[in-house]
Design goal:
Radius of gyration: 21 Å
Oligomer: single chain
Bound molecules: shikimate-3-phosphate
Number of domains: 2
Strand order of the largest sheet: 2-3-1-12
CATH class of the largest domain: Alpha Beta
Structural class: alpha/beta
Number of helices: 14
CATH topology of the largest domain: UDP-n-acetylglucosamine1-carboxyvinyl-transferase, Chain
Length: about 425
């Protein structure tokens, strides 16, 4: 699997703030990560590509970034915009963050509000809710913030702002979201203490350059897990998959649906657990998904809805209103597009109800400009009778360059 998108972003951010040269291997050369890369270059950080998925970052230290001469473009990447908001709030200079038309529609107050609580000055369209965002950073104070949403982007933005200020910054959230920031900050030498319901960070740490091995992205592997489960006769080993428990909800969900998934060669890489995943064609059944399972599989619901559309019985997904503010409204997008292929799928305000059918049918569908919708529809197409045309597929470059070639390759065997 190509490298984990979340961990790749964080490797550039922490590598840039550390002292010394950080070497990263397994870096995801997707468009989202390249946006983060360019932003740090615009602030004076030297980043060298040394191989197809390796790079070196000459860190400038916590106070070494330079005021960017131009607007910083986050492209389609919500992680870039929200984490940078926190990081830039702690920098004693002026910066502006913007993004593509999808990102400029997404809610930003969830990070702007706690950062203003730390003393940051941030302006944006729609009263600070939408990008472009202008940030005059510096002179923050620590905060103890109870986030109303379970979001790693919110948690990480506050922790990154907390790096710049002496004292303890605390964040709590309703359910634990992905903890890659906490793990990587610890590897770089920060004092990060998880506690029940949240995490605290002691500011002004000395961050030391590291060798970071980025594991394969479980969110990318998810498409191939479902492809293997729904394809008669399929047996597939997906190598190098990050199985961090805050991300591995997809394995638990597919297993509960009756999927045959086995983890092999479980090992640890740069503070993250990794395994090879063996998948076999299985008869799937409908289940209920809600509560703390939702953040553990938050990016996988488009492809979970495909598995559910082909499972026996009904799958109900609740507590997942966050899906409405992802790269697109993923509830509306999957209901509309899978419906066109004959799935029995209905929207709930905070989820979906899906009753499985034997087989999907041919049709023309759209990605809505969202990489994970495009790849989920490609998996759905594997089970459809006749030809499925997916429109607007260039977006898969965001997180999974090479997706179409890999899919074609496994389908040929
Ligand atoms: C991410 C956090 C999640 C996830 C996104 C990546 C991250 O977003 O959906 O794809 O790298 O921190 P939220 O924090 O909004 O849940």
């Amino acid at each position: 699997m190509p490298g984990d998108k979340s961990i790749s972003h964080r490797s550039i951010m922490l590598g840039s703030l550390a002292d010394g040269t950080t070497r990263v291997s397994g870096f995801l050369m997707g468009e989202d990560n390249l946006s983060t890369w360019k932003i740090f270059q615009a602030m004076g950080v030297t980043i060298r590509q040394t191989g197809s998925d390796t790079l070196e970052i000459d860190g400038v230290g916590l106070d070494g970034l330079a005021e960017p001469a131009d607007v910083l473009d986050c492209g389609n990447s919500g992680t870039t915009m929200r984490l940078m908001c926190g990081l830039l709030a702690g920098q004693d200079f002026f910066s502006v963050l913007t993004g593509d038309k999808y990102l400029r529609r997404r809610p930003m107050k969830r990070v702007v509000t706690p950062l203003i609580g730390m003393g940051a000055r941030i302006w944006g369209r729609d009263g600070g809710e939408r990008a472009p965002l202008a940030i005059q950073g510096g002179s923050l104070k620590p905060i103890s913030y109870a986030s109303p949403v379970s979001s790693a982007q919110v948690k990480s933005a506050v922790l990154l702002a907390g790096l710049s200020v002496a004292g303890e910054t605390r964040v709590t959230e309703p359910h634990l979201s992905r903890d890659h920031s906490e793990r990587m900050l610890t590897c770089f030498g920060a004092d990060v203490r998880p506690f029940a319901g949240g995490v605290s960070l002691i500011g002004r740490p000395h961050l030391a350059a590291q060798d970071v091995m980025v594991p394969g992205d479980i969110s990318s592997a998810a498409f191939f897990m479902v492809a293997g489960l729904i394809t008669p006769g399929a047996e597939l080993t997906i190598r190098n998959v990050g199985i961090n428990p805050t991300r591995s909800g997809i394995i638990d969900i597919l297993t509960a649906m009756g999927g045959q998934l086995e983890l092999h060669d479980i090992r640890e890489q740069s503070g993250e657990p990794v395994a090879d995943v063996l998948v076999r064609h299985s008869r799937l059944k409908g289940i209920e998904i809600d509560g703390d399972m939702v953040p553990r599989a938050i990016d996988e619901f488009p492809v979970i809805s495909v598995a559910a559309a082909l499972a026996e019985g009904t799958t109900t997904i609740r507590d997942a209103a966050e899906l409405r503010v992802k790269e697109t409204d993923r509830i509306a997008a999957m209901v509309s597009e899978l419906g066109k292929l004959g799935a029995q799928i209905e929207a709930l305000p905070d989820g979906m109800v899906i009753t499985g059918v034997e087989q999907l049918r041919m049709g023309t569908v759209s990605s809505h400009g969202d990489h994970r919708i495009a790849m989920s529809l490609a998996v759905a197409a594997l089970s459809a009778r006749g030809e499925v045309t997916i429109e607007d597929t260039a977006c898969t470059e965001t997180s999974f360059p090479g997706f179409w070639e890999l899919l074609e390759n496994i389908c040929d065997r």
